[in-house]
Amino acid sequence: MMNFTNKFLVPVLALVIFCLLWEFLVWVNDWPNYVMASPSDLGPSFWKFRWLFLEYGWDTLWRTVAGLLLAISFGVVVGMIMGFSRTMRDALYPLLVGFNAIPKATVVPVVALLLVGQHDLNTVLLAFMISFFPITVSISIGLSTLEPEYRDILLSLGASRMTIFRKIALPKTLPEFFGALKVAVTLAFIGTNLMEIVEPHGRGLGHLFDSGKISADYPLMFAVLIALAIMGIGLYYVVVVLEKIFAGWAERDAT
């Protein structure tokens, strides 16, 4: 019962309190909805544009997931290379850090010009570019900090390197991997929406947000932001469920 309360009721209560404080803040400052929309303004916008939210929400979701899957594949491979090779780690880390330091908003027009008209590819690519870094670093750190004593013992017992990876290295990196994946999920949504906002004839919630900005429909803009937050939370909890399945053994109760 206590676990149900902590996992479900507490987040719901926090969300209700947040919405009440938001509504109160708008009311006490007497802000019109073109300055700050309140939660009570969002319902009519969701209903008025419900079909666009469904259609564009799906576009944003599948592009984000595609970019995230690409980031996982690339990040795991490069992270393994860096984790097992000190030389490759020293060579690739400066490049990855330098690339990650570049504001991705400045990369958006470059990608859009290189791949003109490829709306889906542009969006997936930016979601990948903004989310692969934490995955790569987590895998690299997890493998590079593997205790050599375990490896030496298994090698002396005749275990192959693949067995060592499967029995020791992989379980050790899973907690770090899922921790990084939780961060990458939100970053992928940021990348997707950056490109959707810039694309003049694109689709997705970012494009719907830009349409609200052009028409000065501020409740619509805030409704899009809330929709993005809900989708991000949903995808985050998908990662949490996967973490429970594959790395639940690493979780420790708080003392």
Explain this structure to me?
The chain starts with a helix and ends in an 8-residue tail after the last helix. Helix 3 packs parallel to helix 6 (119-144), helix 3 packs across helix 9 and helix 5 (104-114) crosses helix 8. With 255 residues, it is mainly α. It has helices at 2-29, 39-48, 50-84, 86-101, 104-114, 119-144, 148-156, 161-198, 205-214, 218-247. Helices cover 84% and strands 0% of the residues. The radius of gyration is 22 Å and the shape is globular. It has one domain (40-250): MetI-like (MetI-like fold). The longest helix is centred in the last third of the chain and has 38 residues, at 161-198.
Provide a concise account of the structure shown.
Helix content is about 85%, strand content about 0%. By secondary structure, it is an all-alpha fold. It has a single domain (about 40-250), classed as MetI-like fold.
Content of β-strand: under 5%
What is the global morphology? globular
Cα-atom radius of gyration: 22 Å
The averaged pLDDT comes out at: 85
End-to-end C-alpha gap: 18 Å
* Largest sheet, strands/sense/barrel: none
Low-confidence stretches: none
CATH class: Mainly Alpha
Query: Number of helical runs?
Result: 10
| Structural class based on helices, strands and sheet pairing | mainly alpha
* CATH topology tier name: MetI-like fold
The domain tally reads: 1
Count of individual beta strands:
0
CATH superfamily grouping: MetI-like
Query: Which second-level CATH architecture applies?
Result: Orthogonal Bundle
Spell out the helices and strands N to C: HHHHHHHHHH
Helix content: over 70%
